[in-house]
């Protein structure tokens, strides 16, 4: 292939990627810019001054609803879902390293919730709780609904990890006298730790912004996505954009922290080897 042709293909792909990034982050950049409107600014361009007025207004309950409490509920719920997703996905990955009776059925039953509409699952779980005499709540029924969304992804990721994991490392550890528990703690777990962090990050982010599976299961108190949806019906100021900016920065912070931990673990593993 000639150098000119390769150069042309490079520029075509670069232009395509640039258009994709603009399509992906263009609306988000508009939200961030409009969140810095002045006190008399509206929901559209042009900016009427620049200020942090709407960020201060964001935490006033009378103006925008119970944002602080809804954020706290989403954060706690996301952490709960993250922990259970990591533990169950790890155990499933270890279990499915060997074939056992009913493994195929169990696998398809696990991933089946991915093809069922989220609102149907939310409605079904809410009805089951009500029929059982248990009031739906964000920490119970919504927690279960979120797991039907995060667990299949976590399990599939761990399947891929263990499919590429060589048992030779474990055999070498056992030859050196390590027990099964020592082999898992000192050999297997450090090697798959970055993948577990990825599963945890995946579980947290999927739960943190989940709307459809929370709609019928959250009970009396809203999570953050439901609170934002409620705000869109009665808030006509840039405070919505300020909320979007804050939640976006929070999401990027979580991702950067996860990447930092994964990099640190990778360097530590490289030093040991």
From TrEMBL:
UniProt similarity note: Belongs to the binding-protein-dependent transport system permease family. CysTW subfamily.
Record's bilayer topology term: Multi-pass membrane protein
Domain of life: Bacteria
Subcellular location: Cell membrane
InterPro entries on file: Bact_Polyamine_Transport, MetI-like, MetI-like_sf
Biological source species: Rhizobium miluonense
Protein name per UniProt: Putative spermidine/putrescine transport system permease protein
Gene3D superfamilies per the UniProt record, alphabetical: MetI-like
Residue ranges of the TM segments: 12-36, 75-96, 105-129, 141-162, 183-206, 239-265
GO CC list: plasma membrane
Signal peptide span: none
GO biological process: transmembrane transport
Keyword hit for Ion transport: no
Keywords from the UniProt entry: Cell membrane, Membrane, Transmembrane, Transmembrane helix, Transport
């Amino acid at each position: 292939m000639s150098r000119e042709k390769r150069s042309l293909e490079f520029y075509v792909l670069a232009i395509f990627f640039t258009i994709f990034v603009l399509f992906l982050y263009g609306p988000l950049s508009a939200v961030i810019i409009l969140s810095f409107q002045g006190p008399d600014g509206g929901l559209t361009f042009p900016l009427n001054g620049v200020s942090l007025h709407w960020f201060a207004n964001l935490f006033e309950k009378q103006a925008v609803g119970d944002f602080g409490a809804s954020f706290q509920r989403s954060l706690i719920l996301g952490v709960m879902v993250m922990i259970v997703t990591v533990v169950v996905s790890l155990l499933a990955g270890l279990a499915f390293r060997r074939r056992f009776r009913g493994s195929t059925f169990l696998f398809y039953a696990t991933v089946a919730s991915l093809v069922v509409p989220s609102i149907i699952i939310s409605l079904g779980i809410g009805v089951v709780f009500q029929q059982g005499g248990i009031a739906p709540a964000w920490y119970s029924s919504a927690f279960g609904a979120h797991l039907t969304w995060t667990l299949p992804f976590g399990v599939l990721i761990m399947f891929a990890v263990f499919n590429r994991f060589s048992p030779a490392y474990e055999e070498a550890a056992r030859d050196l006298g390590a027990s099964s528990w020592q082999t898992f703690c000192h050999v297997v777990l450090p090697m798959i730790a970055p993948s577990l962090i990825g599963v945890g990050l995946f579980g947290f982010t999927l739960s943190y912004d989940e709307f459809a599976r929370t709609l019928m299961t959250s009970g009396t108190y809203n999570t953050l996505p439901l609170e934002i949806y409620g705000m869109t019906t009665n808030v006509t100021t840039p405070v919505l954009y300020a909320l979007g900016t804050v939640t976006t920065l929070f999401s990027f912070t979580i991702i950067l922290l996860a990447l930092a931990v994964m990099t640190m673990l990778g360097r530590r593993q490289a030093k040991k080897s």
